[in-house]
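hey so u asked for the seq, here:
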Amino acid sequence: MAGALSGMFANQPPGPPPPPGPPGGPGPAGLIPPPTGPRNPNNTLVDELEASFEACFASLVSQDYVNGTDQEEIRTGVDQCIQKFLDVARQTECFFLQKRLQLSVQKPEQVIKEDVSELRNELQRKEALIQKHLGKLRHWQQVLEDISVQHKKPAEMPQGPLAYLEQASANIPAPMKQT
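ran it, structure tokens below
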């Protein structure tokens, strides 16, 4: 596994290059190629991602920006830091997508095992959700059954012209006394 990630952590080309994509396409195997800008050979993608994140955070809490009066300069600096972070994040994502593609070509059974595992987890999650909803359904069925049983007891109901009003007033809560 460490050999599969050697391109990310040692800034070397990772193994054999991926097969070329269609002419005029976005890059190898349909992936976006990493920018061709200058890179420090001592830094890895992870180091660059961490440094760009720290620069974003620092630009947001920097005293220069807090005390600065030129809002446009502040906005430009923050935008540049965020854009650098997003660029490095895309490069990192591209790296992992390339490794995933290599894995799917070299070991397709591993990808199938992962898919089966994900499907089993999803099935368990949905089974638990179904059980939760069945419990709620049983609860409300019981509530409805209790209500219907209460309405089917006519012997306990008073008879006469005011019986309906007596029953309705019995269900009204008593007013709260204010002190």
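The CA atoms of residues 86 and 159 lie 78 Å apart. DSSP finds six helices and no strands in the chain.
lmk if thats what u needed
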